[in-house]
Amino acid sequence: xxxxxxxxxxxxxxxxxxxxxxxxxxxxxxxxxxxxxxxxxxxxxxxxxxxxxxxxxxxxxxxxxxxxxxxxxxxxxxxxxxxxxxxxxxxxxxxxxxxxxxxxxxxxxxxxxxxxxxxxxxxxxxxxxxxxxxxxxxxxxxxxxxxxxxxxxxxxxxxxxxxxxxxxxxxxxxxxxxxxxxxxxxxxxxxxxxxxxxxxxxxxxxxxxxxxxxxxxxxxxxxxxxxxxxxxxxxxxxxxxxxxxxxxxxxxxxxxxxxxxxxxxxxxxxxxxxxxxxxxxxxxxxxxxxxxxxxxxxxxxxxxxxxxxxxxxxxxxxxxxxxxxxxxxxxxxxxxxxxxxxxxxxxxxxxxxxxxxxxxxxxxxxxxxxxxxxxxxxxxxxxxxxxxxxxxxxxxxxxxxxxxxxxx
Length: 408
Hints:
- By secondary structure, the chain is of the alpha+beta class.
- It folds into two domains: 7-148, DNA methylase specificity domains (Adenine-n6-DNA-methyltransferase TaqI, Chain A, domain 2, Alpha-Beta Complex); 212-357, Adenine-n6-DNA-methyltransferase TaqI, Chain A, domain 2.
- 38% of the residues lie in helices and 17% in strands.
- It contains eleven helices and 19 strands.
- It has helices at residues 11-14, 57-61, 109-126, 137-141, 150-192, 216-219, 262-269, 317-324, 327-336, 347-351, 360-403; strands at 7-10, 17-19, 35-38, 47-48, 53-55, 73-76, 85-88, 93-94, 98-101, 144-147, 212-215, 220-224, 238-241, 258-260, 279-282, 291-292, 300-301, 305-310, 354-357.
- Strands 2-9-6-7-4 form a five-stranded mixed beta sheet, covered by helices on one side. A four-stranded antiparallel beta sheet has the order 12-18-15-16. It has a three-stranded mixed beta sheet with strand order 5-3-8.
- A hairpin with an 8-residue loop joins β6 and β7 (85-88).
- α3 (109-126) packs across α11 and α5 runs antiparallel to α11 (360-403).
- The protein is elongated, with a radius of gyration of 28 Å.
- The model has no long low-confidence stretch (mean pLDDT 92).
C-alpha cells in the first residue's frame, strides 16, 4: 500500500502520557485498599486483570499515584523492565516506573503498542547507564511516530496480529521442545548414574554389580576454598574469578576477570588453587552451575566457590563432574543449602555428597555414553536457540515493514 496521507508526528503530539507514583510505605494502611496498583515487573501479562498489591483512596490523594482507565497502554520506564508493555483490562493505578498512554479517537492503541514493541531495542539502548537504567517520558514523547489514517492503522494491526499469531505458535513449539530437551538431559544423567546406560536389567533402586556408594571426600585429594578476604585488585596480574565470570555453557570467561598480585596469588594458592582436571563448585547464589577445569592456566577462584580435586587413581574428573550436574546432586543440594540472605552450601556438605562409583573402566563407558547423548541434545538445543533468534529477528522485520508502509 502506498503511504498516502501518512504523517510523521512526535508520540507526545498524538497521545497523552503520564506516569504513576508510590504511596508512602511508612503508612501500611495505604496498601490495604481495593484499587489495583501496577508495578513494572507485572508488565508481562499482555492484559493486566489483577495486581499483587492494592491501595486505598487515601493513598491516591496523598501521592502522585492516579487511577488509569481500562484500556490504557502501559510501558515500563526503569531498570531491567524498560520497554515492557501491557494493556489495562481493569481500572488501576501504577507506580512511577510505569507510564500510561491513553486511548483517543485519532490513534489505535494497538498500533501504538506495536510501534513501541518495534522501538523497544532503541528504548533499551537509550536507557543504558546509571545505578538503575531508565527512560523518561520526554524520550518517549520525542519518538517519531508514522501516523497513517485510522483505517490503515486498523489494517496494519489486523495484519500484524495474523502474522504474529503464527509466529508465536512456532515460538511456543520451539520452547516446548527446548523444555523437553532439558527434561531429557536430566533423565539421561539420572539413568547414567543408576548404571542403566551401561548395564542391562538394573533393578530399580539398586546399583549394578561392582558399583558402590561412596562420598566426594573419599574419592578426592582435597575439597576446599581460599580465604574470604578479597585481595587488592590490579589492572594486570593473576586472574581472580568469581561466579559472575561463569558463562551459561558452564565455562569460565576471563574477559572481565579481576586481577591480583603474584604475592597474593602465591599466598592464597597455598590453601588451594584450581588446576586442570579440578571441578569448581559454586557455593553461593549460582549453586549447581559447576565448572570442569579442562585447560592449563594459573588463576584463583574466589571464596564463593569450592575447588574439588578428584583422586585420578579412583575417579575420572569427567565422571564426577557429570555426576555433579545430575538430578541426584540437585536433590542433595536442596538438603544442604542454607537459606540466609543468599543461598549457600558449606565445604563439609560438599564432602558428604553421596554418589555411585564403578570401576575406572566402567566410568569411561558411562562418560562416553553420556557425552554421546548429551552432544546430540546440545546440537538440538543450539538449533532451537538459533531458530528462536531468527523468529525474533523476523518479528522485528515484520514490524519494520509495518511502520514503513510496506506490510499491507
